[in-house]
């Protein structure tokens, strides 16, 4: 089968690899229907480190189950499934609490022995806990939005939840990438009265407005913070969705948070310490977030996708075939695309 | 009248000063019955900076109202009152949300024009919003515990609330000073199943056990973290009450927090950035806290004090007169006393 291999900085290739197979009795083998390139894939894509064997990359997919191991009970061959970016057993204490990304037996696709999903097929460990089956199979028009439930929409929703977005509250979203845009959608869905999107790219902010952003701030740093304060009567926002992952974005987050407010950070942090410890303290601002337990959120988000109330799939502004994945990375790296879907 | 003046490092003196008076129509004049020395008073006590005029210090008190300004409606001369360490109007948007320490018109005793409470009397701004009257006057045996509602017990409770202590959960308290000990009491009161107190001083840990600590860890840093992990089956605690205010204490807090856990920090932060950004992120650990809105917590805590269910006043292991305040500071600075009450 064909699969994507990351070799190092700006070097991603699609190769013929041995077919994915079931290796554990709890596995499922999933034929990928749609996968995608995520913002977090760009971090290794930009790292100078060389991986001689290539790393099998990709962690978001929807597909059709081809086979299951002998201990799999809930998932069956033929099921159409959403594959969250983390696999999880579904019954440990952390899964019970809805934090599937801390599952005692879980892990992440594209790490170690578990191959990535930018491929024709993928082995899914702990299939019963991990996969979310869609009875009857989906409307083809919904595939893009369903794919977002495997990562990006759940991640934006996580930022909004951790930032305690609620009806009537003010929210700001830092970063208009696909996660930030889904954060806008999540904030609107949860009833925020004001949603300020901070991003400088017109294609992103236009989609952000379509998703529910009430205000757009195109500056950065202190200037952006000053604009947010002006837009909020000088108090700042109740909820900050930090969707970038840099120290500067965290600094702005603390600056624009209202006293008693909360920051939900979902950008993979590329900073050693959370800045502005003192201002965050004196304002009683809470900082939370991390890898989103998207498996836990599908129950809540799926009906809105199926019934057309949200269309997170609009973050995909480019669709490519598997062989075009290298160009897909280039397009995202050069910001020629917000997010690229792979029609396998 | 006599009042305490802080001149600089290890130099605190009790002087005759002009009598406190009402200067604003919303003020009350309170004759102090009990005040105390707080751990946070030791920070300026240890700073080399010299204050030529002396700073009027002290922020926690209970007392009797002697007079009120013409716009004061709710508080009357003769009322026995608890004076929270922050003054607040009681009706701005932040007070309405229970965050009185962010009051739009509020501030702190012992800062700027507003004198401190380690004195015979104190001017209380915004008396109607700030003061909490106790109808009928209190049982003298309860004075110590009532005094804690002006700061230290409310602060320990804030740490526990922000750390999301709840029935059946595991909690750890870093720092066995008076705030940490009140944190233990608050965690027990909120139903924590396990309460691990991290402190090395036997007098403090003994009181901690009396307050409800189920385990005591006397080591520090990585060693303390390893002991907490061993005490919690390797998972860590749901709730960390950070009652020290150093970067090392924050580092330990992140290390011992369970995935999905929360850290409530109430130690005045003497670090610029919150360390361990990555581990906190990958565990989805939330960091919150700040100056405690103790005014908001009196309604909840007072009945437990009045009916003897909690005795936070036991943190006071030494009682002095106003003239002995310099010795009180020395005793706390040298850890010969946990917390010193001033019987004015």
Walkthrough of the structure:
Two copies of one chain form a homodimer. Chain A is α/β, with parallel strands linked by helices and 344 residues long. Chain A contains twelve helices and 18 strands. In chain A, the strands form four sheets. In chain A, strands 3, 5, 6, 9, 10, 17 and 18 form a seven-stranded mixed β-sheet that branches. A six-stranded parallel β-sheet of chain A has the order 13-12-11-14-15-16, with helices on both faces. In chain A, strand 11, helix 6 and strand 12 form a beta-alpha-beta unit. In chain A, helix 8 packs parallel to helix 9. The first copy, chain A, starts with a strand and ends with a strand. The mean pLDDT of chain A is 97. At the A-B interface, strand 15, helix 10 and strand 16 of A face strand 15, helix 10 and strand 16 of B.
Provide a brief overview of the structure.
Helix content of chain A is 29%, strand content 25%.
Strand and helix layout:
The structure is a homodimer of 344-residue chains.
Chain A: E1 2-8, E2 11-16, E3 28-37, H1 42-46, E4 55-56, E5 61-68, E6 80-83, E7 86-87, H2 93-96, E8 107-108, E9 121-124, H3 127-130, E10 132-134, H4 143-148, H5 152-162, E11 170-174, H6 178-189, E12 194-198, H7 202-211, E13 215-217, H8 221-231, E14 237-242, H9 247-256, E15 257-265, H10 277-282, E16 286-288, H11 294-306, E17 318-320, H12 325-333, E18 340-343
Parallel strand pairs in A: 11-12, 11-14, 12-13, 14-15, 15-16, 17-18
Antiparallel strand pairs in A: 1-2, 1-4, 3-5, 3-9, 3-18, 5-6, 6-10, 7-8
């Amino acid at each position: 089968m064909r699969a994507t291999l990351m070799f190092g900085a700006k070097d991603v290739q699609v190769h013929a690899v041995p077919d994915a197979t079931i290796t554990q009795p709890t596995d499922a083998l999933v034929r990928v229907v749609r996968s995608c390139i995520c913002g977090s894939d760009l971090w290794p894509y930009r790292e100078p480190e060389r991986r001689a064997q290539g790393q099998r990359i990709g962690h978001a997919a929807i597909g059709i189950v081809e086979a299951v191991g002998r201990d799999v009970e809930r998932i069956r061959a033929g099921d159409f499934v959403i594959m969250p970016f983390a696999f999880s057993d579904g019954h440990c204490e952390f899964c019970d609490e809805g934090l599937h990304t801390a599952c005692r037996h879980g892990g992440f696709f594209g790490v170690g022995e578990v191959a990535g999903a930018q491929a024709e097929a993928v082995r899914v460990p702990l299939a019963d806990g991990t996969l979310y089956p869609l009875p009857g199979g989906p409307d083809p028009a919904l595939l893009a939005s369903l794919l977002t439930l495997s990562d990006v929409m759940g991640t934006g929703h996580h930022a909004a939840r951790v930032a305690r977005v609620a009806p009537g509250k003010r929210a700001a979203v830092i970063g208009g990438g696909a996660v930030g845009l889904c954060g806008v959608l999540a904030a609107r869905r949860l009833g925020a009265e004001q949603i300020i999107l901070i991003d400088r790219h017109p294609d992103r902010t236009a989609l952000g407005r379509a998703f529910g952003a009430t205000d757009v701030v195109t500056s950065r740093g202190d200037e952006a913070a000053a604009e947010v304060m002006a837009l909020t009567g000088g108090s700042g926002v109740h909820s900050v969705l930090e969707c970038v992952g840099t120290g500067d974005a965290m600094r702005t987050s603390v600056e624009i948070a209202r006293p008693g407010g909360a920051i939900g950070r979902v950008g993979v942090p590329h900073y050693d310490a959370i800045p502005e410890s003192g201002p965050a303290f004196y304002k009683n601002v809470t900082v939370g977030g991390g890898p989103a337990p998207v498996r836990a959120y599908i129950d809540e988000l799926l009906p809105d996708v199926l019934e057309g109330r949200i269309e997170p799939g609009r973050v995909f502004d480019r669709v490519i075939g598997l062989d075009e994945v290298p160009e897909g990375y280039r397009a995202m790296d050069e910001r020629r695309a917000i997010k690229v879907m792979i029609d396998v």
